[in-house]
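Listing S7. Sequence submitted for prediction.
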Amino acid sequence: MLTPATPLPTRRSDLMARLALDEVFDIAVVGGGATGLGVALDAAARGLRVVLVESHDFAKGTSSRSTKLVHGGVRYLAQGNISLVREALHERTTLLHNAPYIAQPLAFVLPAYRAWDQWFYGIGLKLYDMLAGKAGLGKTEFLSRKQTLAALPKLQPVGLAGGVKYWDGQFNDARLAMALARTAAKHGALMVNYCRATGLLYEGGKVSGLTCCDTIDGTQYRIRSRCVVNAAGVWVDALRETDSDAHQAAGGQTIRPMVAPSQGVHIVVDREFLGGEAALMVPKTADGRVLFAVPWLGKVILGTTDTPRHDLPREPEPFAQELEFILNESARYLVKAPTVADIKSIWVGLRPLVKPVDDDGEATKALSREHTVLISRSGLTTVTGGKWTTYRAMAQDVIEKCIAKGLLKTAAACTTVDLPLVGADASAGASAQSLSAAPGGHSYGVEAAQLQTIEGHFNEMCAGLTEGMVRFAARYEYAVSVEDMLARRSRLLFLDARLAASLASRVGHILQEETGIDPKTDEFSALCASYLQIPTKNS
């Protein structure tokens, strides 16, 4: 086993001091979610000078609110989108290889209450195996009624004919985001959270950088960069409108929005409602949607929904009908139906569905779940859409399009296919753990050895969370607020909002001691309450 390198400190004063220097970067990335982090890592690994700014915390938005699946997309297979499935299956293998302590294989079981459903879905999933080829994680199996109930002990047995078991992946999304940020920094990138992009700089009508603001102390910065990539997820249109204003001033046309957001709701309940190690997948619910019941970090995630919305809140709330849908559908398939009283946490993510835009900036009617890269006349490069599984391929596509357009100059090839992330410096799989059982949501890989040297490591605050972990997050993982720690460095808010609220003051005290920055303890306590708020039909 290799000895892991000493973690790279992330003291905020040092990061902001470097940002204040008159440094010319090759690429400035706006947005610290899956795509932006992937772009920063790809560019830094090629030897380019990189800066990334994120208005909130890394993965604060959509990228910490996924269904936690690394998958090829069984739904897309049913839609006939073979190319998207094939790419995702390839990227699934890459992700599991480069971060084995964050992402692992997971068995899924589709129950069949009609014999022909078992054959219909089984044949489709055999095709899924064929598309995966050598990248497959396990063979699809037809299960008898008895085998199906053995895999899913709390499945409704009445009318059950059998089932189909197939394999996909599962991961800890926010922890993967942190590993990407830290790996990019290890390759020289300047990664700055809580720094909002406020506008673009121009030279000769071309984008030459951006302006930004430290949202903690209000300091303004100017960043000079040869290329600017707008990777703000569902919020990309805000920066595009800034670019649009510049074009209008020069007599150009208004740029139309390219994102149509969709909302996905998840609820978390105790493990006892599902039982076993496998996940439940219902490919077609009463209204044609997909339902998952996924064991994750000692709990079970139930979801998800797919509801259009027209606003872009940072903390979206579930609609009453979404919660009703998840609970009602769960009751159809589980022996013991979860109720509102059983909910440990409710969280909502906004998905950036793309309105394809042609070369003249005109949006078409079709919506796409694939990613889109658009380079404006001024050179602003915008990327949105896609999903976590394909983040690496999306990032590679962005960098190569920028090179092709002359926005970046490098002869270096992409290296991220075989680039282990921070924490995965040992042989593949050596530090893997089961995400279905691990409490707290911490994934350190081989850095667990360094963690044990930090004061407070053996002072447990709750199962799976120690004082040393909070100090590690402050020193090496960019954490400044209680929310950073208990929502994303640990996943406690997403697993048990009441427990997270009970630890807020203690965590805040440690963070204040480490960083000298207000940890926003009261704001986090209010956030915990919102993760337990049950929507009414009038809300």
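Caption to Listing S7: primary sequence and predicted structure tokens for the chain studied. The longest helix spans residues 497-515. Residues 12-62+175-258+355-418 form a domain with the FAD/NAD(P)-binding domain fold (CATH 3.50.50.60).
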